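SEQUENCE-TO-STRUCTURE ENTRY
===========================
What this section holds: a protein sequence and its matching fold, both as plain text.
Question of interest: how does this chain fold, as expressed in C-alpha cells?
***
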Amino acid sequence: MTNDVRARKLADRIRVIAAETLERRVKDPRLGFVTITDARVTGDLRDATVFYTVLGDEEARAASAAALEKVRGLVRSEVGRQTGIKFTPTIAFVADAIPDVARHIEDLLAEAHAADEAVAAAARGASYAGDPDPYRSSEDLEEDLEEDLEEDVEEDLEEDVEEDLEGGLREGERAEGRTADVSGEPS
C-alpha cells in the first residue's frame, strides 16, 4: 500500500517536472503545443510513462513525438536531479488517447441527439393509434365494478336455483325411500 502511495506521488512529481522541462529547457522547433496530461510509475519505481496530447494535425503529432523521443534523456536527468531518489525511472512518452475517445463520444452523442430530433419531429405530426387516453379512469373502473357485481349476483342466483332444484329432487327421493322402508315394500 505504501508503494502505491509513493508511486502516485512520484508520478505526480514526474508529470510536473516533465512539463516544466519541456516548457523551459527544450528549444526543439518540432515540439508543438504539447500538454502533459498524466504520468504513471510502476510499483517498483523503475519505469515511468508520461502521457501527452498535441494540438494540431497528424504531421504536428508525429513531429512532436520525434522531438519528445529525442529529449527523453534530458527529462530523465531532470527528474533524477529534482526528486533525489536512488534510482531514476526510465521515461517513456505515450500519446494520450483520451482526446480521441472524447471526440468519438461527442460524435456519438451528436448522432443520438440528431436521432432524437428526428423522432420528435415525426411525433409532432403523428396521432395516437388507439384512444387519446389509453388509461382507465375512475369512472370506467366504477362502471366495470358494477357490471362485474351484477354478473356475479346473476351467476350466484342461477347456481343457487340449480342447487335448490337438485337438492329438492334429492329430498323427494329420500322421502320416497323412507316411506318405502317404513311400509316394507321395496321401491
